[in-house]
Write a structure and sequence with these properties.
alpha/beta, 2 domains, 10-stranded mixed beta sheet, 13 helices, about 20% strand
C-alpha cells in the first residue's frame, strides 16, 4: 500500500510527551496512510521501551548517542517511503484535521515544497511561525530585546503586513503567506523537494538547520508557505521555559547563524555579522550587570550568561 506521509519524530528524554504525540497521530491520521518513524537520540527515561511496548507499529531507530536534530531527522527520512514527509516535534498534539487539511493543500499547490501551519501553545495562544532567514539586523533586535520592549499587539494590528514579513512574531497568524522558512517543529515537505535539494545539513547539531533547509528549497525554485487552515498544538509552555536563559541554546543559535552566513553569503556579510554579535554581547554584558540587582529572576543566571558571552566571543574571533 502506498504511504501518503512519513512522520519523523526525533525524541530525547520526553517519554510522556512522545506517548501523547503518538496517540494523537494514530487517532487522527485516517483516512490517510501514514508511517511513523521515531528516532531516539539515546534517551534514558524509558522512551524506547514505551514505544516498543505500546506502539509496535511504529518504526524505531535507537541511537547510541545524541546525534542532534538534523542528523536524526535524516536517519528517519532515509527510512521513510511516504509521498510527503512531516518533521514533527515529540511535544506536539495533532488535531482531527491537521494532516488531512495540510495534505490537501499540498496536493492542490504543486509549486509549494514545504509548509508550516497555525501553531497553538499549551496555554492556547498562537505561537508565531513562518519567518525570515537569519540576518544581522535580527541579531541586533534580539540583543536589544526588541520583542520585550516594542508594543507587540499594536504593531501586529497596524503593521503586520510589512513588519510580519521580517518578524513572524508580528505577522497576521490568520493569513496565508509565503515565508523564508518555517519552524522545524512542524515541517510538511514534498518528497520531490528532498530528492532535489537533499536532506538536512548535519553540520548543524541544533538550531538554524530548518532555515538552511528552506534556503536550499527556495534557491531550487520551491515555495515555502505558512498556512492558517490547519492547526496543531506545540506544548512549548510545558516543555521549555522560553524566558529562561540557556547557554547551550545561545551558543547554538549564534554559532550556527555564523555557519549559515559562511555557507550562503559573502565574506563581507559574515564580517558584518561577527561585528554585530560582538557589539550585542557587549551591550548584554552591560545590561546584565546593571539589571541583575533589580530583576530578581535573572540573578541566579548571571554566571551562566557571562560564561556564554565569553565563549561566544571566543568563537566569533576564532573562526
Amino acid at each position: 500500500m502506498a504511504i501518503d506521509i512519513s512522520i519523523i519524530i526525533v525524541s530525547y528524554n520526553v517519554r510522556e510527551y512522545l506517548r501523547n504525540c503518538l496517540e494523537s497521530i494514530i487517532r487522527y491520521s485516517s483516512p490517510l496512510t501514514v508511517e511513523i518513524i521515531v528516532v531516539d537520540n539515546h534517551s534514558a527515561d524509558g522512551s524506547l521501551e514505551m514505544v516498543q511496548r505500546e506502539f509496535p507499529s511504529v518504526k524505531l531507530i535507537a541511537n547510541d548517542e545524541n546525534f542532534g536534530f538534523a542528523r536524526a531527522n535524516n536517519q528517519g527520512m532515509g527510512e521513510g517511503e511516504g509521498r510527503y514527509v512531516l518533521l514533527l516535534n515529540p511535544d506536539t498534539l495533532l488535531w482531527e484535521d491537521t494532516l488531512s487539511v495540510t495534505h490537501d493543500y499540498m496536493e492542490k499547490h504543486l509549486e509549494v515544497g514545504c509548509v508550516g501551519i497555525k501553531t497553538y501553545t499549551a496555554s492556547g495562544s498562537i505561537f508565531p511561525n513562518g519567518s525570515s532567514f537569519p540576518a544581522s539586523w535580527k541579531v541586533i533586535t534580539k540583543f536589544l530585546m526588541a520583542k520585550q520592549v516594542l508594543p507587540n499587539r499594536w504593531i501586529r494590528e497596524h503593521f503586520s503586513r510589512s513588519v510580519g514579513r521580517l518578524f513572524s512574531y508580528y505577522a497576521n497568524r490568520e493569513v496565508e503567506r509565503e515565508v523564508d522558512m518555517v519552524g522545524g517543529f512542524f515541517m510538511f515537505v514534498r518528497r520531490e523537494v528532498i530528492d532535489t535539494v537533499g536532506l538536512m545539513d548535519e553540520n548543524y547539531f541544533l538550531e538554524i538547520e530548518d532555515s538552511d533547509w528552506c534556503m536550499r528549497m527556495k534557491r531550487a525554485g520551491w515555495k515555502v508557505k505558512y498556512i492558517p487552515y490547519a492547526s496543531f498544538t506545540h506544548l512549548i509552555g510545558k516543555s521549555i521555559d522560553r524566558y529562561r536563559f540557556s547557554k547551550s541554546s545561545f551558543l547554538n543559535e549564534f554559532t550556527n547563524t555564523m555557519r549559515f552566513y559562511r555557507k550562503f553569503y559573502k565574506s563581507v556579510d559574515l564580517l558584518g555579522l561577527k561585528i554585530t554579535i560582538l557589539a550585542g554581547i557587549l551591550f548584554q554584558v552591560f545590561f546584565t550587570l546593571v539589571s541583575t540587582p533589580i530583576v530578581g529572576w535573572e540573578r541566579n543566571q548571571t554566571g551562566e550568561k557571562m560564561s556564554a558571552f565569553s565563549e561566544m566571543m571566543k568563537r566569533v574571533l576564532s573562526v
